[in-house]
Amino acid sequence: MRKLIATALTLALMISAMAFGPTPSSAQDAKPGLFVNLTSDDTWTAAKAIVFAHERALKSGHKPVAIWLNVRAVYLADKKRAPHVHGLMKDKNVSIHDMLRAFIKDGGMVIMCQTCSAAAGLKKEDYIDGVVMGDWPTVSGILFDPRVKTLSW
What we know:
Layout: H1 2-20, H2 25-29, E1 33-38, H3 43-57, E2 65-69, H4 96-105, E3 109-113, H5 114-119, E4 132-134, H6 136-143, E5 148-152
Parallel strand pairs: 1-2, 1-5, 2-3, 3-4
Helix pairs in contact: 3-4
């Protein structure tokens, strides 16, 4: 009788482990994405936001990682403006444009606010290569994804 109870208990535990156990390893290993809301064209602020998104999140395997440039931050990717090199950065020759290009090259997404771009008199062709002009489906698809965290600078 004890053997029958032990077998039944073992079977019940195996079934519950399959039904309620851990998720498959690919889902378990997935790291949440990051949506960085950057509103300032201050280069110290921008450099910190870009480094965090690129070096800390994207290079650590978080996906997707997007930087949404809105309000005055739209000026950061304007290819006609001389990109500032911030003195606090390790490599004193890296500009904000360089940082954004490297982020995009490594798989990050830089999204422009369309309304803010229009208010600033900027169009898609005014931005460095790789910048995406944000529309509601693009922004909301990342922003409201339950696997994505939001951080603002």
